[in-house]
Automatic annotation (TrEMBL):
<dbReference type="GO" id="GO:0005794">
    <property type="term" value="C:Golgi apparatus"/>
</dbReference>
<dbReference type="GO" id="GO:0016020">
    <property type="term" value="C:membrane"/>
</dbReference>
<dbReference type="GO" id="GO:0005783">
    <property type="term" value="C:endoplasmic reticulum"/>
</dbReference>
<protein>
    <submittedName>
        <fullName>Transmembrane BAX inhibitor motif containing 1</fullName>
    </submittedName>
</protein>
<feature type="region of interest" description="Disordered">
    <location>
        <begin position="1"/>
        <end position="46"/>
    </location>
</feature>
<keyword id="KW-1133">Transmembrane helix</keyword>
<feature type="transmembrane region" description="Helical">
    <location>
        <begin position="253"/>
        <end position="274"/>
    </location>
</feature>
<feature type="transmembrane region" description="Helical">
    <location>
        <begin position="136"/>
        <end position="155"/>
    </location>
</feature>
<keyword id="KW-0812">Transmembrane</keyword>
<dbReference type="InterPro" id="IPR006214">
    <property type="entry name" value="Bax_inhibitor_1-related"/>
</dbReference>
<feature type="transmembrane region" description="Helical">
    <location>
        <begin position="223"/>
        <end position="247"/>
    </location>
</feature>
<keyword id="KW-0472">Membrane</keyword>
<comment type="similarity">
    <text>Belongs to the BI1 family.</text>
</comment>
<feature type="transmembrane region" description="Helical">
    <location>
        <begin position="162"/>
        <end position="180"/>
    </location>
</feature>
<feature type="compositionally biased region" description="Pro residues">
    <location>
        <begin position="32"/>
        <end position="46"/>
    </location>
</feature>
<feature type="transmembrane region" description="Helical">
    <location>
        <begin position="286"/>
        <end position="307"/>
    </location>
</feature>
<dbReference type="Pfam" id="PF01027">
    <property type="entry name" value="Bax1-I"/>
</dbReference>
Length: 313
C-alpha cells in the first residue's frame, strides 16, 4: 500500500500545468468564453466530424404521441368513430335514395293508369255515356276507395306486408281512377287537357322546389290540418249553396282554394319523403309515401279541372 495520498490538484495548479496547453478547448482563467456557434435550420447543416447527421422526423398520426399513450389511443378511436359515422351516413343516404326511387316508380305506374282511364272516359263517347247512365258505380267505387284508404292509413301491418300492400294499393288506384274518370266525363275535352297540363307543371315545380329549398314544411302539420278542416267546411257550404242555385264564381273560388291546399299537402308529403327535415317517412313505408303523393296529385287535378271547366263554359 502506498502512503502517498493521491489527491487531485487544485484548479489554479491545473491551469499552471503545461500539459493543459495540449487541450485547445480549455480556456484560461478569466478569459472570455468563445461565442456559441450559429444555428441554421437548413437541411444541409453539418453537426461536425465524428457525429452522424440528424435523422429527419417521420410524421405520425399521433402528432408526437406514442402508440401506447392514452392520447394516441383516443385519437385513433375518434378516427374509427368518424369512419363509422361516414359509413353509416352513406348507408342511410343510399337507403333513402333507394326508397325515393321505389316510391316514385310506384307513383308513376299509378298516375299512368289513372290518366289513361281519364283519357278513355274523356275521348271515348260510349264509355262516357255508360258512366253518366250508371252513376251508382261511382258511389261503389267511392266506398271501396274510402275503405281501402282507411286500411292503408290506419293499419301498419297490411301496409307493410308484401304482397298484400301492393294488392290493396292496386284496388285503391283502380277505385280512385274510376272516380277521376267519372268526374272528367262531365267536362269538356279542352278543360280536361288543360287540367292535365297544369297538374303536370305544378307537380314538377313542387318536386324541384322541395329538393332545393331549405325551408322545412314538415313542421307545419298543424297548419295543414286546420287548412284541411276549413276546406271541408267551405266545401259543405258551397255544396249546399250550389244545390239551390249554381254560382260559377263560388264554384271556381272553392276549387281554387282546394287546389292550393292540396298543393301545400304535396309539398309537405314530398319533404316527408326526402327525409332531411324535422319529420320523415321510414324507408319501410314506401306504400304510404306513394299513396300520399298519389292522393294529393289526383285531388290537385280534380280541383284544377273544376276551375278550367268553369272557365271554359
Amino acid at each position: 500500500m502506498s502512503s502517498k495520498t493521491d489527491s487531485p490538484p487544485s484548479y489554479e495548479d491545473a491551469l499552471k500545468d503545461p500539459k493543459c496547453n495540449n487541450y485547445p478547448f480549455l480556456t484560461q482563467h478569466g478569459a472570455p468564453l468563445p461565442p456559441p456557434p450559429s444555428y441554421s435550420p437548413s437541411p444541409g447543416m453539418c453537426p461536425g466530424p465524428g457525429f452522424p447527421p440528424p435523422a429527419m422526423p417521420i410524421p405520425t398520426l399521433s402528432a408526437g404521441l406514442s402508440a401506447s399513450s392514452p392520447g394516441s389511443q383516443a385519437i385513433l378511436n375518434s378516427a374509427g368513430e368518424m369512419d363509422d359515422f361516414f359509413s353509416n351516413q352513406w348507408e342511410s343516404t343510399s337507403i333513402r335514395h333507394a326508397f325515393i326511387r321505389k316510391v316514385y316508380l310506384i307513383l308513376t305506374v299509378q298516375l299512368a293508369f289513372t290518366f289513361a282511364v281519364v283519357g278513355v272516359f274523356t275521348f271515348v263517347d260510349p264509355v262516357k255515356m255508360f258512366v253518366t247512365q250508371y252513376p251508382a258505380i261511382y258511389w261503389v267505387s267511392f266506398a271501396v276507395f274510402f275503405l281501402v284508404y282507411c286500411i292503408l292509413i290506419c293499419c301498419k301491418e297490411p301496409r307493410r306486408r308484401f304482397p298484400l300492400n301492393l294488392v290493396l294499393l292496386g284496388i285503391f288506384t283502380v277505385a280512385l281512377s274510376y272516380m277521376a274518370g267519372t268526374v272528367s266525363s262531365y267536362y269538356e275535352t279542352k278543360a280536361v287537357i288543360i287540367a292535365m297540363g297544369i297538374t303536370g307543371v305544378v307537380c314538377i315545380a313542387v318536386t324541384v322546389f322541395c329538393f332545393q329549398t331549405k325551408v322545412d314544411f314538415t313542421s307545419c302539420g298543424g297548419f295543414l290540418c286546420i287548412a284541411a278542416v276549413l276546406l271541408m267546411i267551405i266545401g259543405i257550404v258551397t255544396s249546399i249553396v250550389l244545390s239551390f242555385q249554381y254560382v260559377p264564381w263560388l264554384h271556381m273560388l272553392y276549387a281554387a282554394i282546394g287546389a292550393v291546399v292540396y298543393t301545400l299537402f304535396l309539398v309537405y308529403n314530398t319533404q316527408l319523403l326526402i327525409g332531411n327535415r324535422e319529420l320523415a317517412i321510414s324507408p319501410e313505408e314506401y306504400i304510404y309515401g306513394a299513396l300520399s303523393l298519389y292522393v294529393d296529385i289526383v285531388h290537385i287535378f280534380l280541383f284544377i279541372l273544376q276551375v278550367s271547366g268553369v272557365a271554359t263554359e
